[in-house]
């Protein structure tokens, strides 16, 4: 044996070890998640990709946005659930942080399935990557199948109306779509109303250049900082709400308004509790 | 092969199997033969069979096909024979697959055949970026929207569906399997994975489902024996991205530029790779078409015996043998 022995430094492995710590690995392994023999579920979710991504997001979550959470115990550790947050901040950073909070929840980690825009699968690499970390295209069939499979699904009922709104409309809930209520009623799923405080300040938009958005085929083209600002983010998860099936869109709308009113109260409470924006 | 109980009612039936030369049909015949009379038909060649299995070289859309029905009292037809896009041009394929199947149904009605099983394909659903996962049998068939080269597959299904509702006495069962792989299977994907090099579109790793040819043969025989007419996906609940399947089969991945979308089609045409990487299937190497196979499993009590690893192992072994 040679007397000179130089240990080989594997940078990739070193970074992976720093990102995917044993506690994070244990949390992901605890998630109720049926996958096939190669580690994939029918939507393309993959355990290994999630672990690395969650390791990266956790850095942002803890050190950049310094996320604080309340009411995580309201999210059941198993079984179907719809998490319904307000939407803001131009980029879907709120979805990422809500998903991270659910995944890092030591009470019972859950993989959050987020519904994404339909053009993402056409983008090379990004489409597959988003699928691998649990996101799927926002098709009602996907959502139904996931609830049937006892998954936790995040739906932003405001859609792009919420994420693309101008800074002067911050913390004002926009029109809600009724789809989430139909799903909750049809599949007997509890709704967790959620208030996201702080994401409005991550990317304040002063103006929406609509002609540019049309030209690029994107929902909005904000005049905003190029990268999210390091605002402090607080997430408030409310008590589960249960709704009985009703018929007629007016009756459904009424139930949607109940959720919206609850979220409005939670947002006002969250804003009143906030001491620092940055 | 495990011994199988005779079919429903225990009566010995006469079963016509089309596409008898193929790997899947051979396996179906082997399973049926001990308990039923089998008649083999193929449009490519006269298939070598056991002494007591009559074998015909016949085009389904030609008049001579009727002679088969006249010569044997056919009780059931298992329609597997299909002309692949790499075999002939689009018009010839349309004649063989669509007109041939239409004639097959006409003859089944005329000669009072009591059961028809049609082996279709998951390609009929079409591969698009907007597909939800776990597509069930009620989903629209969008393949014609993706490419004209799959029009014959969709029309063949339409014909079968019309018969299914208009002629319940035919007891039509349509099976839409995911990718069938295994020894001697000669469909596009099997040929592709048998090669040492396999093209992979850069930036796209669509999930795929695979079923072993033995499990598919078992599924067809179950559909014949249990006879519950209808349309069924046949797919195991296990998934793998295509580039990983390529690696597992022991192939070297050949990256192909994927954008702009016309580029991979052009590359496919230039390489004249119609057999294993045809331009009309490019979308299937880009977007997933994931089937919900639960209905078939529940209705017929089918469970695949081969895992994904078993399926890929046969392709690995094949390459190791070739390398000596």
Short description:
The complex is a heterodimer of chains A (278) and B (324). Chain A is an alpha/beta fold.
Description of the structure:
The complex is a heterodimer of chains A (278) and B (324). With 278 residues, chain A is of the alpha/beta class. Chain A has one domain (18-273): 3-Layer(aba) Sandwich (Glycerol-3-phosphate (1)-acyltransferase), CATH 3.40.1130.10. Chain A is 40% helix and 12% strand. Chain A has 11 helices and 9 strands. Chain A has helices at 11-19, 22-30, 47-64, 93-103, 126-132, 140-148, 160-163, 179-186, 199-202, 210-216, 249-273; strands spanning 68-70, 81-85, 112-116, 136-137, 152-154, 191-197, 207-208, 222-223, 234-237. In chain A, the strands form 2 sheets. Chain A has a 7-stranded mixed β-sheet with strand order 1-9-6-2-5-3-4, with helices on both faces. A two-stranded antiparallel sheet of chain A has the order 7-8. In chain A, helix 3 (47-64) crosses helix 4 (93-103). Chain A is globular and about 75 Å long. The N and C termini of chain A lie far apart (58 Å). The mean pLDDT of chain A is 90. Chain B has 324 residues and is α/β, with parallel strands linked by helices. Chain B has a single domain, classed as 3-Layer(aba) Sandwich (Rossmann fold). Helix content of chain B is 36%, strand content 17%. Chain B has helices at residues 23-32, 65-71, 90-110, 143-146, 151-166, 188-194, 213-226, 242-248, 262-270, 294-300, 308-323; strands spanning 14-18, 37-42, 55-57, 76-79, 115-119, 172-177, 179-181, 197-201, 207-208, 210-212, 230-234, 240-241, 252-256. In chain B, the strands form 4 sheets. In chain B, strands 3-2-1-4-5-6-11 form a 7-stranded parallel β-sheet, with helices on both faces. A two-stranded parallel ribbon of chain B has the order 7-10. Chain B is globular and about 55 Å long. Chain B starts with 13 loop residues before the first strand and ends with a helix. At the A-B interface, strand 4 and helix 6 of A face strand 12 of B.
């Amino acid at each position: 044996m040679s007397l000179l022995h130089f240990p080989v430094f594997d940078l990739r492995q070193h970074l992976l070890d720093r990102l995917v710590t044993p506690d994070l690995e244990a949390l992901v392994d605890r998630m109720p998640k049926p996958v096939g023999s190669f580690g994939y579920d029918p939507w393309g979710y993959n355990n290994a990709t999630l672990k690395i991504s969650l390791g990266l997001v956790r850095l942002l979550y803890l050190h950049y946005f310094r996320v604080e959470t309340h009411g995580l115990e309201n999210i059941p550790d198993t079984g179907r659930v719809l998490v319904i947050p307000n939407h803001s901040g131009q980029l879907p950073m709120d979805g990422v942080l809500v998903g991270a909070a659910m995944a890092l929840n030591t009470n019972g980690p859950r993989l959050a399935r987020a519904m994404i825009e339909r053009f993402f699968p056409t983008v090379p690499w990004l489409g597959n990557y988003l699928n691998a970390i649990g996101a799927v295209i926002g098709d009602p069939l996907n959502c139904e199948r996931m609830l049937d499979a006892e998954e936790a699904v995040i739906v932003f009922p405001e859609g792009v109306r919420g994420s693309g709104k101008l800074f002067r409309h911050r913390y004002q809930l926009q029109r809600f779509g009724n789809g989430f209520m139909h799903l909750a009623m049809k599949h007997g799923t509890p709704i967790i109303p959620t208030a996201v405080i702080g994401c409005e300040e991550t990317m304040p938009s002063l103006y929406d250049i609509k002609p540019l958005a049309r030209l690029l085929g994107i929902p909005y083209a904000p005049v905003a900082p190029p990268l999210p600002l390091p605002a402090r983010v607080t997430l408030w998860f409310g008590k589960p709400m249960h709704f009985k099936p009703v018929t007629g869109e007016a009756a459904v709308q009424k139930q949607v308004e109940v959720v919206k009113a609850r979220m409005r109260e939670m947002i006002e409470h969250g804003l009143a509790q906030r001491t620092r924006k940055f | 092969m495990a011994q199988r109980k005779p079919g429903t009612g225990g009566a010995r039936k006469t079963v016509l199997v089309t596409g008898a030369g193929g790997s899947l049909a051979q396996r179906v015949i082997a399973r049926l033969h001990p308990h039923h009379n089998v008649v083999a038909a193929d449009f490519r060649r006269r298939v070598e069979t056991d002494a007591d299995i009559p074998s015909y070289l016949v085009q389904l859309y030609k008049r001579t096909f009727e002679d088969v029905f006249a010569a044997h009292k056919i009780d059931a037809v298992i329609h597997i024979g299909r002309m692949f896009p790499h075999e002939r041009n689009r018009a010839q394929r349309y004649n063989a697959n669509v007109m041939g199947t239409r004639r097959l149904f006409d003859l089944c009605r005329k000669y009072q055949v009591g059961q028809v099983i049609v082996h279709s394909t998951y390609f009929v659903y079409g591969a698009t970026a907007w597909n939800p996962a776990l597509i069930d049998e009620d989903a629209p068939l969008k393949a014609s929207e993706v490419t004209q080269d799959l029009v014959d597959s969709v029309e063949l299904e339409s014909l079968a569906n019309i018969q299914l509702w208009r002629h319940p006495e035919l007891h039509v069962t349509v099976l839409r399997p995911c990718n069938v792989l295994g020894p001697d299977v000669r469909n596009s994907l099997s040929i592709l994975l048998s090669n040492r090099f396999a093209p992979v579109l850069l930036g796209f790793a669509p999930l795929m489902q695979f079923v072993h040819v033995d499990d598919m043969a078992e599924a067809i025989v179950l559909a014949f024996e249990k006879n519950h007419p209808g349309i069924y996906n046949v797919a195991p609940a296990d998934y793998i991205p295509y580039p990983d399947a390529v690696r597992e089969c022991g192939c070297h991945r050949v990256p192909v530029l994927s954008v702009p979308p016309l580029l991979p089609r052009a590359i496919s045409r230039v390489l004249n790779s119609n057999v294993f990487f045809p331009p009309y299937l490019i979308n299937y190497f880009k977007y997933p078409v994931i089937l919900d196979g639960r209905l078939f499993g529940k209705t017929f009590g089918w469970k695949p015996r081969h895992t994904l690893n078993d399926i890929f192992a046969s392709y690995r072994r094949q390459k190791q043998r070739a390398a000596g």
